[in-house]
Amino acid sequence: MNFLENEITDTGERTLESVGEGGQIVKEAFAAFPSGVAALCAQIDGELIGIAASSFTVGVSFYPPMVMFAVQNSSTTWPVLKDAPNIGISILSNNHAAACMQLASKGGDRFAGLSTTTAETGAVLIDGSPVWLDCEVVGEHMAGDHTVVVMEVKSVSAQDGIEPLVFQASGFRELETPVAA
């Protein structure tokens, strides 16, 4: 049974399925949750290193300001990137879908054609992003097949009028005009 086609009982209530070891039903359930997309990048020994993450979370702590994301334990980029003194986090804009796919690729030049800004700290930021954060890694915590990375925000820049890139159901989405609360 497909996650999005849950059995409806006579009372109109859905039923829950056991996930066992996870698998496709868990992936489908998690894909239903929309998220922003962040690029995490730095310059290390003169080379630009970066990844894209849809598991990025802000507001982990306001004092000190902290953010987090989860990275697959199989990543070959994170072991290199995590050793940078500072990592730039760019919340990608709705014009960055191609850049996101490029940064998420397993081969080729992830930065070909991308316009970036490198901070004095070595943090690399993607131009045209609504939010830039310059961060330091403060903790890593194993979580199944991923590692949760907690980072302290050292500096920030926010630009009004730029819509974020949203990822949901294995595709990119655009935000609509907000509905009054």
TrEMBL record:
Pfam entry (one): Flavin_Reduct
Keyword line: Oxidoreductase
Statement: the UniProt record of this protein carries the keyword Oxidoreductase: yes
SMART domains documented for this protein: Flavin_Reduct
Every Flavin reductase like domain range: 30-174
SUPFAM superfamilies: FMN-binding split barrel (SSF50475)
GO molecular function, one term: FMN binding
The UniProt record lists the keyword Oxidoreductase: yes
InterPro entries in UniProt: Flavin_Rdtase-like_dom, NADH-dep_flavin_reductase, Split_barrel_FMN-bd
Family: Belongs to the non-flavoprotein flavin reductase family.
Protein name (record): Flavin reductase family protein
Species per Swiss-Prot/TrEMBL record: Nesterenkonia salmonea
